[in-house]
Design brief:
Layout (H helix, E strand, L loop, with lengths): L5 E5 L5 H10 L3 E5 L3 H9 L3 E2 L3 H5 L4 E4 L4 H9 L13 E4 L5 H13 L3 E4 L2 E2 L1 H7 L2 E7 L1 H14 E8 L4 H29 L4 H9 L6 H12 L8 H18 L4 H18 L8 H8 L8
Parallel strand pairs: 1-2, 1-4, 2-3, 4-5, 5-6, 8-9
Antiparallel strand pairs: 6-8, 7-8
């Protein structure tokens, strides 16, 4: 680990809080900002420095990490009023860890190059548990110069860093493939659990069987416990997969590549959002199958 660097950080949400806290634990000086008061309280209690705007968080930073929801928020954080580029030094590195389209990542990379800043396209995978434990996987692309400064920050937040290439957007392409699988697996897990329950198998027994059988997946093992307890407190919300699978399908249209399974999963998440579940945990897509079958995967609901 090199000498600690100054890091600006924006986005102390479900995953961002864990990621920023890992940087503190690894010896980095981190100045962070978020729009929510509760995030400020948690962050300062953890020992982090609070700033009132992205511009203030970016002042004197060697690396500026962006962990927000979508492209519009990234634009605001970087290029808007009181945005980071008002104060971020030239040749500092911007690391965007959000899930966005490859085309958007390429555009951000171009804009930052024009302002004299370096860029790493670095979407993450591993969920809240991975963020809290520093065991994320990061799919990153960027120049050698960007990695020279930015890689220690990535390593402080992740167990695995996959350097996809030098061109911005390549990291986002890898994340797009991951989200295609992740969203489809959640939808399939919901379908399978409601189906098995409706057919008469105890859902807790069914989960135990499948989680140790060939039909399992990481998403099955991670999301089905939410379905079993009926606890849909959002760790990753339905609306996230409405967005992410929408990105997947946008890329597919650009390539004229058929993605029938991803399209169906996207429709299921859209249906869940339309039913008022958009802000609930993505595992709540199981309610669609419960409602049409008259069964409940969570026996106590």
């Amino acid at each position: 680990m090199p000498e600690p660097k100054k890091v600006g950080f924006v986005g102390l949400g479900a995953m961002g809080m864990g990621m920023a806290t890992q940087l503190l634990k690894k010896g980095f000086h981190v100045a962070a900002v978020d729009t929510r008061r509760e995030a400020k309280e948690r962050w300062t209690a953890a020992g982090g420095d609070w700033r009132d705007s992205p511009a203030m968080a970016a002042a004197d930073a060697d690396v500026f990490v962006v962990m927000v929801v979508n492209a519009d928020q990234i634009d605001s954080v970087l290029f808007g009023g009181k945005g980071a580029l008002e104060s971020l030094r030239r040749q500092s590195v911007v690391i965007v860890t959000s899930t966005v389209s490859p085309a958007y990542s390429r555009a951000v990379g171009k804009r930052l190059a024009e302002t004299g800043h370096l860029f790493i396209d670095a979407p993450v995978s591993g969920g809240v548990i991975g963020a809290d434990s520093g065991s994320l996987s990061i799919m990153a692309s960027g120049s050698d110069a960007a990695f020279e400064t930015g890689e220690p920050v990535l390593r402080a937040m992740a167990a695995k860093i996959y350097r996809i290439g030098a061109e911005p957007g390549l990291g986002s392409i890898a994340k797009t493939v991951n989200q295609l699988l992740a969203g489809s697996h959640i939808a399939l897990a919901a379908e399978a659990m409601a189906f098995g329950t409706r057919a008469g198998v105890d859902p807790n027994v069914l989960y135990e069987v499948i989680s140790h059988s060939a039909g399992s997946s990481w998403m099955f093992n991670n999301r089905v416990p939410h379905m079993l307890t009926g606890d849909f407190t959002p760790l990753s919300a339905v609306n996230i997969f409405v967005k992410d699978l929408g990105i997947v399908l946008d890329v597919a249209r650009e390539l004229k590549f058929p993605l029938p399974m991803a399209a169906l999963a996207h429709q299921l998440f859209l249906a869940a959002a339309s039913a008022g579940l958009g802000d609930q945990d993505d595992s709540s897509v199981v309610k669609l199958f419960e409602n049409v079958s008259g069964t409940s995967v969570a026996r106590d609901r």
